[in-house]
Amino acid sequence: MINKKSLLILISIVLLGLFLRLYKLDALPLTTDEFLDINSSFGYHMTGQWKAWDFNSQMVNDSLFAPRDNRAWMYKIQVSQLFNFFDPTIFVARTVSVFWGVVSIVLVYFAGRYFTGKNAVGLISSFLFSISIAGITIDRTLRMYAMLFPIFLLLSWLVFLFFEGKTGKDWESIEYLKRKTGFNFFWAPFVFIVFTLSFNLHLLTVVIGGVFLLYCLMKALFIFKQEHSWKNKYVFFVVASMLAFISTMLLFPEIISYKNGSINFFKDSYYQGSIEFFRFNSRYILGAVSDYVNPFVAYALICIGSYFLIKNNEEGNKKGLWLLASFFGIVGAMTFVLKFGYGLRFIYFAMPFGIILLASGIYYIAKFVQENSLSSKKFFFMLTVTFFLLALPDYNKLFFSQGIYSQIDEKDDYREAFAYLTKNSSRGDALITRNFRNFYYARAGLIAHDLKAHQKISLAELERIMSENDTVWGVFEKNSGSFDKEALALIKKEFMVDKKFGDVVIFKREKK
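^ thats the sequence. predicted structure below, dont judge the formating
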């Protein structure tokens, strides 16, 4: 249970995090993936099927990224349900992520308290996440990563309990299975449910397997150092996992295969993915601690926290190693193995483990200061914690004009561009643009001609659009590669530049 004082502190932290996530929630324009998610969420609201909704024509548009309409449906169905009660606005849609951000703040507290045995570490961890720049940024975005963060944290916790959790005295069958297999099967259904949920949110969930193997390997090395023996369940699971992996590759190549230096999973299916060893993407190493002004200090605190958690006792050894494996296992996979371009969202689900380890580092330094103070020991403990909480997070990104509440890069502000277009166009006018952004010209009654991502508009197609419509608008970036050479030359000749919004140009052509 949580005592009254800690509860009041936690509530204050939650309210702070809620405010930071709700403040100017709809101020920033939608990103590309947010357009796709709001289209499919509203499409489900209107039809009960995962189809993209065209807000301009007020009907389903099957050509708008149909293969990804049902992706992360467990997140998007929450958005669609909100539309039963509220109009489809950016603010309303993004509140689902805000909700999961608040869940994360609370869950980080309880996870921090459980894995370290220190209530103070739980509170420090919760505070660090509540003001986390990465956390606030993603929790203010219409993407499932806000939900993946707490779900994967819960999954990691449950997998640890499944492997290392103690059994109750009255559960003889569970205790028997624990002795025979090494697993606490009481947690098995919970692991299955949460893994299924997390896997349907993002395929990166499979990294939990690497975390488990890394933990077993580290634990086996610790036992060997103490007992000079390899006879333990950790070695068994490492060897068994490697044999199972190799056997699957040889016997079931449709599940796992090797080609051109890459290991491929579920090739030619929705769940396909690949890993490539000996890659190096250093940005993930820094991205994992991007909330802090100095990454070297952040990693130093993580190492200090890890050292003392592992050093304390056998139980702390297991929990500390699990946190260490969870954090560095994910960071290592993203840096050296998985084939992903850099994106903060891809490393985001590793951050809770780093936060708890870092908070542990702060706690143990503060305890050291407290124990070596001649007087006012509690005061010096609080002073040390306060110093780190004020000096370490990058508050500049919260409070200054170029922070997370401001649109730093305005070169592609389609929101302003389409606001101008809808004000100056007439129903029935033709529009050439990337039509997935139709949320910004909802109910405009424009005849949209979609610019495909990998298919250029030809001269003949452009001439047809011009011949069939008295007024043709174009909204795209000035260096758009969506037209072939002849079509682009015709645009420069026949269209006038009506307005510019950074790199976004509004073209207009009227029949004479």
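The two ends are 77 Å apart (CA to CA).
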